[in-house]
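Practice problem: Rhodanese-related sulfurtransferase
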Amino acid sequence: MTEIVRSITPKDAWQLLEDNPKAILIDVRSEMEYLWIGHPKGAIHIPWIDEPDWIVNPHFAAEVRKLLLGGIITDHEDSAHPIDSVPLLLICRSGNRSLEAGKELVKHGFTNVYNVVEGFEGALDHEHHRGTLGGWRFHGLPWEQT
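Answer key — structure tokens:
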């Protein structure tokens, strides 16, 4: 069976994080977005695409695996490290970049990957503003700015 990236709402993502201490929320936005716009409390920052070149991070899956192993990278097929089934929740601005990042993790053997569908800020409204139709902040979930 082919693994897929599962969709999850911001509220359900928060509940999963509360219920499962092994679950990890990864913010895949750029460093500037993470720092200046804010991020969910407890989120780990691993950019999928970042400035200055705005290209896909070729080490994204390896950085996630390194995070899960506490800094030790091993082959994902190593049965001594069942890290590939840890719930990974990915969030970006509106759910698009995090979906692409999730697909990359699935390609690298991760089997429990979620995309927070509304993202941190949600979709644009009819006046081209974010944060009025959905997203982590819209739902009043814990977040912070650094």
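Discussion: The CA atoms of residues 126 and 137 lie 19 Å apart. Students who identified this feature from the tokens alone can consider the problem solved.
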